[in-house]
């Protein structure tokens, strides 16, 4: 006990000394303890992600699939700053990467009770049989990762009848767990500390490979534990699952965030989001990487039509 305390104090002293030395520069630019933070969302990041995608040995995934378990119908002005009154369909999705002999799930769907919390009083489309397919896929997956700790992405691993079995192969980040335990979006998705211990909890600086062809990319802003997922398929097709950095691809193309009022309601960090959106736009312009926001029903249908994503999950 005593030794742990001593070590901690020494680390704190070292940290404060480091901070003092670097007072003229931001820690993110120069902190030697966090070398990957040298260029947050810099031009070299995509090359780093491509290298990191090869770090976990094994055959790359062969296809990306998705399923829509529910929809929210909102005016575009709630989704995009300066948007019109025109109605926009936000798909509530989960994604699946298919390998030759296994699957990896990205996000976890939600049960109908959690879905109702997003309706703001309105009854909106929900497909229980599709969420059942997500549950089946979560149990069968070799690995589950979660883009962020909001109910429509995480409820399926928190409120499942198979929670413990799924938790045993689910990776959560430290920031995601902290939110779920201390300040969940809704009491329905709160984790107790002892439940949290059932998951594999990780922390990383900027990006982290978790499976062949799959790299997590830290992107706090929409929530503290928000991350994107870079994917490289065996065919060479690459995706950046940008989760909720923007709700539509238009947000990236036009460099437009959610309106201030929506950001205030979510309590998101607009400065952080601005950097992330700019980087996504540079990726779009400078590469063939397919940027996939979680909720853009129009873009997902377009990708499906072009054979770049498959609708429906496999349980093989
Ligand atoms: Zn979302």
Description of the structure:
Helices cover 38% and strands 21% of the residues. It has 316 residues and is an alpha/beta fold. The chain has a single domain (36-311), classed as Ribonuclease Z/Hydroxyacylglutathione hydrolase-like (Metallo-beta-lactamase, Chain A). The strands form two sheets. A seven-stranded mixed beta sheet has the order 6-5-4-3-2-1-12. Strand 9 and strand 10 form a beta hairpin. The model is unreliable at 1-29 (pLDDT under 50). Zinc ion binds at residues 150, 152-153, 244, 294-295. Zinc ion (ZN) is lined by residues 150, 152-153, 244, 294-295.
Uncertain runs: 1-29
Shape: globular
Bound molecules: zinc ion
Average pLDDT metric: 89
The spatial strand order of the largest sheet comes to: 6-5-4-3-2-1-12
Compute the gyration radius: what is it?
20 Å
Give the name of the CATH architecture.
Answer: 4-Layer Sandwich
Compute the number of structural domains. Answer: 1
What is the fold named in CATH at topology level? Metallo-beta-lactamase, Chain A
The secondary-structure class comes to: alpha/beta
Number of strands: 12
- Beta content comes to 15-25%
Instruction: Look at the structure and name the CATH superfamily.
Output: Ribonuclease Z/Hydroxyacylglutathione hydrolase-like
Mind telling me the CATH class? Alpha Beta
Which H/E pattern describes the elements?
HHHEHEEHHEHHEHHEEEEEHHHEHE
- In DSSP terms, counting alpha (H) and pi (I) runs of 4 or more, how many helices? 14
Major beta sheet summary = 7 strands, mixed
The helical percent reads 25-40%
Measure the end-to-end span: 49 Å
């Amino acid at each position: 006990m005593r030794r742990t305390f001593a070590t901690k104090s020494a680390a704190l002293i070292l940290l404060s000394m480091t901070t003092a030395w670097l007072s003229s520069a931001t820690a993110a630019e120069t902190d030697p303890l966090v070398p990957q933070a040298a260029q947050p969302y810099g031009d070299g990041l995509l090359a780093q992600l491509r290298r990191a995608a090869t770090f976990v040995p094994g055959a790359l995934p062969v296809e990306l699939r998705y399923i829509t378990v529910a929809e929210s119908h909102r005016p575009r002005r709630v989704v995009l700053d300066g948007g019109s009154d025109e109605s926009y369909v936000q798909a509530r999705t989960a994604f699946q990467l298919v390998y030759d002999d296994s699957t990896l799930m990205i996000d976890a769907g939600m049960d109908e009770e959690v879905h109702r919390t997003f309706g703001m009083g309105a009854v909106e489309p929900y497909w229980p049989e599709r969420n059942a397919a997500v549950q089946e896929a979560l149990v069968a997956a070799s690995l589950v990762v979660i883009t962020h700790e909001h109910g429509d992405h995480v409820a399926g691993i928190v409120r499942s009848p198979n929670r413990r079995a799924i938790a045993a192969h689910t990776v959560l980040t430290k920031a995601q767990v902290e939110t779920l335990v201390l300040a969940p979006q809704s009491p329905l998705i709160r984790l107790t500390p002892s439940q949290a211990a059932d998951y594999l909890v990780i922390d990383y600086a900027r990006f982290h490979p978790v499976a062949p062809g799959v790299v997590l990319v830290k992107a706090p802003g929409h929530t503290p534990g928000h991350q994107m997922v870079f994917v490289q398929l065996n065919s060479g097709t690459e995706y950046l699952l940008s989760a909720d950095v923007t709700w539509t691809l238009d947000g990236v193309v036009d460099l437009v965030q959610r309106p201030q009022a929506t950001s205030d309601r979510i309590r998101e960090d607009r400065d952080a989001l601005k950097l992330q959106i700019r980087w996504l736009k540079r990726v779009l312009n400078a590469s063939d990487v397919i940027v996939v926001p979680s909720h853009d029903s129009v873009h997902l249908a377009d990708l499906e039509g072009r054979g770049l994503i498959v609708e429906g999950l496999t349980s093989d």
